[in-house]
Design a protein that fits this description.
elongated, 10 helices, alpha+beta, 241 residues, 5-stranded antiparallel beta sheet
Length: 241
């Protein structure tokens, strides 16, 4: 009886995982990332710092994650108790079948396209009501399309940009593919007249625009930066999609 209970309970856990994979995906999270993070949250293992920011920086995902953490802790206790025969006299299989049937029903309903569209609109509407633009993750603000690209470009002595302005390197026909959000120089940030600002060694440019255009126009400086930072922390770069 205990083995049958464990089998049914593992089916419930699997169904809960798939339900939350669907829910996380409806918030805009990648399918593969969603499945890994759901399993990580439920088991309390492998929840990486970098990808956890995708969960922690999003209000809906944070609420979903709270249940998964609690459900994972409860499930571990149930499984251990079952293996030790602690629940054999207190739990009837008919109740477990009811729970399993209910979870599978929820999963089946969530697989319906109309329900997914409804929940997706609801999640996005709640985000707009609860969050300011500055509270949204970078991916939800800047990287909404496949070719969107955000690069933190470091300037070195042998960079083409050093002691020059951006206007001296690129004409007006080339520039619309990207913009410079700001220039970081030491502890300060330069936001005014940045295209005519003469760049210095140690400056950092925050570039935003088309991925192919940025990689083409700044390929020399990107190559130098990667070489310089090879044994250090990699440059901050994000892509959409």
């Amino acid at each position: 009886m205990n083995l049958l209970f464990l089998l049914v309970y593992f089916i419930i856990i699997t169904a809960v995982i798939e339900i939350y994979v669907v829910l996380f995906r409806l918030t805009g999270l990648n399918l593969k990332v969603s499945r890994f993070q759901v399993i990580s949250l439920m088991t309390g293992t492998g929840f990486t710092t970098e990808e956890s920011e995708l969960i922690l920086g999003h209000p809906i995902r944070r609420k979903l994650a709270t249940f998964l953490i609690l459900f994972g802790a409860f499930s571990l206790a149930v499984i251990i108790s079952t293996i030790s025969n602690f629940l054999s006299g207190d739990l009837r299989m008919i109740h477990i079948f009811y729970i399993a049937g209910g979870v599978m029903l929820v999963f089946g309903v969530l697989k319906l396209a109309c329900i997914q569209n409804l929940l997706s609109k609801l999640f996005h509407r709640e985000m707009k009501q609860q969050m300011e633009l500055g509270d949204l993750p970078i991916r939800d603000v800047f990287l909404t399309e496949k070719n969107d690209f955000l690069l933190n470009l470091h300037i070195y002595t042998d960079s083409l940009l050093v002691y020059k302005t951006i206007n001296q390197l690129f004409n007006d026909q080339e520039r619309p593919e990207f913009i410079v959000l700001f220039i970081k120089r030491g502890q300060s940030k330069i936001r005014c007249n940045i295209y005519n600002e003469k760049l210095q060694e140690g400056d950092q440019l925050l570039l935003y625009g088309d991925k192919e255009a940025i990689n083409k126009l700044f390929q020399h400086d990107i190559r130098i930066m990667k070489k310089k930072l090879k044994n250090q922390q990699p440059p901050t770069a994000f892509t959409g999609g």
